[in-house]
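Standup notes
- DV: blocked on the single-chain target, sequence here:
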Amino acid sequence: MGNAYSTTPQNKLRFSVSKKGNGSKVWVNAWSETQMAMGQVNKMPFEGNKAQNQMQDMLDLLLPQYVNKQ
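- DV (later): unblocked, structure below
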């Protein structure tokens, strides 16, 4: 994804929450990115069943904590 001159790769998650009927719908996107020496940002999405299952597990853990704070 990078080379000796790039920054250390960072893993990033983006959660989007929307109301849907009496409930809500949540989307999550995950990727790893690094910035090259001349400023170009290279991104690599996390795809596949294992990554999707891990993100779902994270949502299942974090969402009740978030909802209870509201």
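- Follow-up: Helices lie at 49-69.
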